[in-house]
Amino acid sequence: MGCAALFLPGKIFCFLLAFWLTVKITFGGNRKRQLYLSGCLAAAAVFYGGVWTALVGWLPFSSWLPGCLSAAAGIWLLYRLVWRDIKRQKDFLYQVEFSWAGKTIHVCGFADTGNFLYEPIGRMPVSVMDKSVLQKYYKGSLKDLIEKHDENGIRMIPYHSVGRKRGVMTGIIVRNILISGKEGKIQIEKGVIGISEEPLSEKGAYELLLHPDLIQYGRL
What we know:
Elements: H1 11-27, H2 31-48, H3 50-55, H4 65-90, E1 93-100, E2 103-111, E3 126-130, H5 132-137, H6 142-148, E4 154-159, E5 167-181, E6 184-196, E7 208-210, H7 212-217
Parallel strand pairs: 2-7, 3-6
Antiparallel strand pairs: 1-2, 1-5, 3-7, 4-5, 5-6
């Protein structure tokens, strides 16, 4: 795309498209992370002279100093507006795996300090997972899958939420839970995960809301 920009009309469009594809393919992640890394990549390109050489002919000045200062200011602004929030969120993200119905499931979890949901029979803390995770590992509808499962491994969990005052959530008992984060690893023999019909994260940053008790008291 960068080479095509030299020969095709709409050079700026081709350049921006190539730039975006480079960031998306190389780094992936959500939009905020892509925005921040795009800014860093652009600033680095200015520092190294590539973008500056392309733009200098359109600008009223030819000194490298304005470009250098602009790049530094751009990185600082992106850090304040974008990356700082991403960094804060990472402190609460964990890699979680557990076993259920003969398979080991891997999911990204977010430590939800506002989760006070407990399973009514054994008072086990309940984490909440997006139902789309199970659809990656099992065929058929969630309802059919649960009906085929052992009834002793299913829990009906009453809950309260802001959008819906009262409701009942289907929960599954999972085993061999391994939670990995910056503090290390936490192993738990078994736990309860409620299945949410609604997406938990609009941008897909995480798919599981971890109960805070699992982080604080879960180590065996």
